[in-house]
Specification:
about 260 residues; alpha/beta; 2-enoyl-CoA Hydratase, Chain A, domain 1; three-stranded mixed sheet
Length: about 260
């Protein structure tokens, strides 16, 4: 699926997906979320790393709030139209929107969000949809949904609580306050930070480190570690055995 505000570039085992609507600070819409879901689903085993990034001054300033106005966004459904369909229609719409975020956990590649400038609301949740986050020193994150009388609903609440804990997640979401790049790094929200001028280089260093390792091992590692969030100790031990067995057998197999 092509989208006018999405650039997709593939360089060997690395795919870069760029939000490209800088005049709107990469504001997001349902059609963009549908395109992101299809891009996530299209990632095959030949792609080892996906980098999510944005052009212009911001990673993404979140949902295009014009969707809440009477004028709406050309070509996009308005939120009043969604709400008018009743509870079931709202639930179906949100489930479809969430696919643009939750599918990244299911793709075989390691997904890195390269964040600069604003990552607000849906932008913050897209960064949380990635496996790893690299942020510029001038980046800042905020959940502003409560200012609209809403809650975060694009798959970001689970990752946020797992990364920073319930109390910090509640405080961030309830107040909507900005979290700077250095603070995000100190609380474990992002993996590394760098000056804005060095952000691309810092991301490339992380990509190179991943590419240096075994493709099979990293491909097995991603679902194994994600399962650890919910598994009990016995279940996770079983998952480790299941993941390790084919790797060990492959490594120890006699040469043909």
């Amino acid at each position: 699926m092509t989208h006018p505000h999405l650039l997709v570039e593939t360089n060997g085992p690395v795919r870069t997906i760029t939000l490209n609507n800088p005049d709107r600070r990469n504001a997001q819409t349902p059609s963009l979320w549908a395109a992101l879901a299809q891009e996530a689903q299209a990632v095959g085993d030949d792609i080892r790393v996906v980098v999510l990034r944005g052009t212009g001054a911001s990673f993404s300033a979140g949902i295009d709030t014009a969707m809440f106005s009477a004028e709406g966004v050309p070509g996009e459904e308005r939120m009043d139209q969604v709400a008018a369909g009743g509870s079931d229609a709202v639930q179906r719409a949100i489930a479809a929107y969430q696919e643009g975020f939750t599918r990244w956990a299911q793709c075989p590649a390691v997904v890195i969000a390269q964040v600069h400038g604003h990552a607000i609301g849906a932008g913050f949740q897209l960064a949380l949809a990635a496996d790893l986050r690299v942020a510029a020193l001038d980046a800042w994150f905020a959940m502003r949904e409560t200012s609209l009388g809403l809650v975060p609903d694009l798959g970001g609440t689970g990752p946020l609580v797992h990364l920073v804990g319930y109390a910090r997640a509640l405080e961030m979401c309830a107040t909507g306050r900005p979290v700077t790049g250095p603070e995000a790094h100190s609380i474990g929200l992002v993996n590394s930070i760098a000056p804005a001028a060095d952000l691309a280089e810092a991301t490339e260093s992380l990509v190179d480190a991943i590419l240096f390792t075994s493709p099979e091992a990293v491909r097995a590692l991603k679902p194994l570690l994600r399962a650890a969030i919910d598994n009990d100790p016995a279940g996770q031990a079983a998952a480790e055995r299941a993941a390790q067995t084919p790797l060990l057998m492959g490594r120890m197999a006699p040469p043909v």
